[in-house]
TrEMBL record:
This is ABC-2 type transport system ATP-binding protein. Pfam families: ABC_tran. Keywords: Antibiotic resistance, ATP-binding, Nucleotide-binding, Transport. It is a peripheral membrane protein. Gene3D superfamilies: P-loop containing nucleotide triphosphate hydrolases. It comes from the Bacteria. Residues 2-232 form the ABC transporter domain. GO terms for cellular component: plasma membrane. Its main location: membrane. It comes from Actinacidiphila rubida. It is found in: Cell membrane. Belongs to the ABC transporter superfamily. GO terms for biological process: response to antibiotic. One of its GO terms (molecular function) is ATP binding.
Length: 305
């Protein structure tokens, strides 16, 4: 389990973390999302012991990561956002090194390297130097190095950035398998559909702290979904009822989108008002809506400040 309390991390007078608290349970994948500069990578770096916060606490499987960084590091698998592989070392040597650092003995390490290489489609490049790998192969090698020691906490910072669909699927499957085996996984990404694939809980970071935390259904429950109506170009557009007009926007010349918490009631109102759509799509609120609603709330808060 990973837990962080009230972390503060400053770069000069900028607070990269400003009271950042988060808990990820064993067996849970938590998607850490938020705008550029929200503090996601800084949090990963603090947990990994790469930078030291001014205050706060971090525990990795019960070990105080600020008091005992080496002990905590041995329990962690980390794939940082920036690719960090030794260019002159082969993938196999790299993975053996990380297996060794995790305390796995030679024969078991050989098996662990073979297993993770197969899982992440690295078999063909195991004996190539990391410096000559393609971008996607490097991503997979970096993720494999994080996973080879079967860590109890796995930190993956945008592991699929620039990855092709096959690499992405292999990485997501490997992450799901680690969580199923009991690891606590922190996964930062800007590709929100991945978090659905991972069945992840969410933590939304903003300006150095977590401002929303919970399951996807829970966090999107109060958000409006949307009705999209395709309109008949041959018919004049009816005037929209007042209770709907404020939530409606044109989507091209012959389509309309209406933000709604009650699709059937709004649709009935539109039909009664003379709207005769050619087709109707109803969309439940999703992670994009959550992200947009938080961004809008941020803009409103900034304007008020
Ligand atoms: N080494 C550093 N020196 C100075 N400022 C830094 C350093 N690293 C990060 N920062 C600042 O700390 C803040 C948080 O950055 P961080 O990289 O954690 O954001 P992020 O949420 O990971 O962003 P992104 O989505 O772009 O990866 C930013 O304002 C950034 O400019």
């Amino acid at each position: 389990m990973l837990s962080a309390e009230e972390l503060v991390m400053r770069y000069g007078d900028r607070r990269a973390l400003d009271g950042f608290s988060l808990e990820v349970r064993s067996g849970e994948v938590t998607g850490l999302i938020g705008h550029n500069g929200a503090g996601k990578s800084t949090f990963v770096e603090v947990v990994a012991g790469l930078v030291r916060p001014a205050s706060g606490r971090v525990r990795v499987c019960g070990v105080d990561a600020l008091e005992r960084p080496c002990d905590a590091r041995a329990l962690l698998g980390v794939a940082p956002q920036e690719l960090a592989l030794y260019p002159t070392v082969t993938v196999r040597e790299h993975l053996r090194l990380f297996a060794g650092l995790a305390g796995i003995r030679r024969a078991s390490a050989r098996r662990a390297v073979g297993a993770v290489a197969e899982e992440l489609m690295l078999g063909e490049v195991l004996d190539r130097r990391c410096g000559v790998l393609s971008g996607g192969q490097r991503r997979r090698a970096q993720a494999a190095a994080a996973m080879v020691g079967t860590p109890c906490v796995l930190l993956l910072d945008e592991p699929t950035a620039g990855a092709d669909p096959e690499t992405r699927q292999a990485l997501l499957a490997a992450v799901r398998a680690r969580a199923a085996a009991g690891a606590a996984v922190l996964y930062t990404t800007h590709y929100l559909p991945e978090l659905v694939d991972l069945d992840a809980t969410l933590a939304v970071a903003r300006r150095g702290r977590v401002v929303a935390r919970g399951g996807r259904a829970e966090l999107t429950a109060d958000l409006p979904g949307e009705i999209r109506l395709s309109l008949d170009p041959a018919r004049p557009r009816p005037a929209l009822p007042a209770e709907i007009a404020g939530r409606a926007r044109d989507d091209g010349p012959h389509a309309l989108r209406v933000a709604t918490r009650n699709p059937s009631a709004d649709l009935a109102t539109l039909l009664a008002a003379g709207c005769a759509p050619l087709s109707v799509d109803v969309r439940r609120p999703d992670l994009d809506d959550l992200y947009r609603s938080l961004a809008t709330r941020d803009l409103a808060a900034d304007a008020a400040a």
